[in-house]
Amino acid sequence: MDSNAMVWFRKGLRIHDNPALDLARRGSKHLFPVFVLDPAYLDPDPSAFSPGSARSGLNRIRFLLESLSDLDSSLNKLGSRLLVLRGDPVPVLSRILKDWNIGTLCFEFDTEPYSQARDNQVKDFASRFGIRVFSPVSHTLFNPADIIEQNGGKPPLTYQAFVKVAGQPHPPLAETYSCLPPIGDLHGYELLDIPRIDELGYGDISQEEFSPIRGGESEALKRLKESLKNKEWVAKFEKPKGDPSAFLKPATTVLSPYLKFGCLSSRYFYQCLQNVYKAVGKHTSPPVSLVGQLLWREFFYTVAFGTPHFDQMKGNKICKQIPWNDNEGLLVAWREGQTGYPWIDAIMIQLKKWGWMHHLARHSVACFLTRGDLFIHWEKGRDVFERQLIDSDWAINNGNWLWLSCSSFFYQYHRIYSPTTFGKKYDPDGKFIRHFLPVLKDMPKEYIYEPWSAPLSVQEKAKCIIGRDYPKPVVDHAIASKECKRRIGEAYALKLSGDSTEIEEKLSGLQRKLEEDDKDISKHMSLKQRRIANNCLQEAEVKADGVDH
Ligand SMILES: Cc1cc2nc3c(=O)[nH]c(=O)nc-3n(C[C@H](O)[C@H](O)[C@H](O)COP(=O)(O)OP(=O)(O)OC[C@H]3O[C@@H](n4cnc5c(N)ncnc54)[C@H](O)[C@@H]3O)c2cc1C
């Protein structure tokens, strides 16, 4: 009982089922619970978006700060506190490990490439100074490395194959604590109070810009309890059924932000679901059940961990090589909710305001950006989601973009979400659109999904003139979707995957051919169609190279 131990929180912002915390507290005289605010995370790339959207990522950062406050107050109740420092974690950790005379360092295993590189540096430093390091797996149900090993050294590339090898996860830790070892001498270190969002350069932020999704373990456990209260609902849960437009009472659990930051343990969630299933008897099964959703998460974590360059097209062996367009104007229109398709735009505004959208809403906008309408690279859409989603998660986000763009896992590129009829099935009155796009709040329901088709007198009455108060559609879906299918079909026919000069040459050749075909197609377009197409091209010219990474 003579060593100082440190638990380094990154994700895993919780007390329950936290093996790193549990290992650190055992046998230590002093326990230092540390969180390092990493500037790279607080603002991964401030120049990525235009000045008007400098507050992107706000909801995610606010969620993080709330989670830290909640963790701090839980630690206070156990006689401890969260020690918050700021800076590049590697030098910060290296200093405090020495200065606080730490003998044991514990942190949760993290599979993201950025985290792996960071953690390896910290491990190297620790081993040079004889500090013991424990890095248990607890962010996921399974250790992705174990699944890959059981699968003969390769990640299973289908959900079914994954489920076959996965088996049962370990149960969560049962320990609860009444106190933790005290913090030792800080040797004069100045610690930060957990900053407020406005102290991180986000400026003066009005309440209305805030997401209703609040951070922290206490919120996570409350939401979990609330979600599982209706046992019948849990037992009958069947995704992709469910209304993507339901925003007052979402059709799914909205636990993804809590799983992402580890405010909620996936193993605990899994166990609670099993308890409900036992109590109810009959229930749905994977892939559509709630347990099935957790297994989707595991599936993407495993493939991401075992696939080099998983987050890009180039050099990624499981990714179809497709000559995507590079069109900044269309990308901006999509990102800012200005495509002229209210269903798409309302979802993108929900993303900006809430940092969360329903799964099928994500499907709609991801399909629209890539293989459905705009033919823009999935990596561009991934970047926007990564910045704006509270639950943005490296493995899951990339995995789903690969899926939705028909670049991997799913190849039925002729199945496209309609930006006008898909949402209408769930929400014929357009309540979701009226909420997130108040400019259309008085548009009659017959026109709410296609306001450009409303007669001028109707637009005037609704105080929304299309082309002035709300944009005209940036593309004609009927034409654009056909064109996307043709392009993907041609790219698939080349059977390109991986990374070589030959592939790049073939892709450029295909791009040139597609551009020639575009010219032919435009000859057959009606005047109205050409006008719509020109509208979208005014902002940014379609560049010739098309395979920009
Ligand atoms: C283009 C695109 C990008 C996405 N990016 C992310 C992301 O960055 N982070 C993220 O957590 N989810 C992402 N998803 C997956 C999914 O949309 C969300 O996990 C889900 O909508 C979160 O809501 P929920 O917690 O209510 O889900 P529920 O339906 O209640 O499911 C419970 C949990 O299961 C997991 N889960 C559900 N669906 C999926 C899925 N398709 N893939 C992997 N895990 C899943 C999540 O952890 C979720 O919280 C993305 C989906 C698409 C189509």
UniProtKB/TrEMBL annotation:
GO terms for biological process: circadian regulation of gene expression; entrainment of circadian clock by photoperiod; nucleobase-containing compound metabolic process. The keyword Flavoprotein applies. The record marks 324, 378, 401 as: Electron transfer via tryptophanyl radical. One of its GO terms (cellular component) is cytoplasm. Keywords: FAD, Flavoprotein. Signal peptide: none annotated. FAD binds at residues 252-256, 293-300, 391-393. InterPro entries: Crypto/Photolyase_FAD-like_sf, Crypto/Photolyase_N_sf, Cryptochr/Photolyase_FAD-bd, Cryptochrome/DNA_photolyase_1, DNA_photolyase_N, Rossmann-like_a/b/a_fold. It holds the Pfam family FAD_binding_7. This is Photolyase/cryptochrome alpha/beta domain-containing protein. Belongs to the DNA photolyase class-1 family. Binds 1 FAD per subunit. Residues 3-141 form the Photolyase/cryptochrome alpha/beta domain. Its cofactor is FAD. Coiled coil: none annotated. It comes from the Eukaryota. GO terms for molecular function: deoxyribodipyrimidine photo-lyase activity; DNA binding; FAD binding.
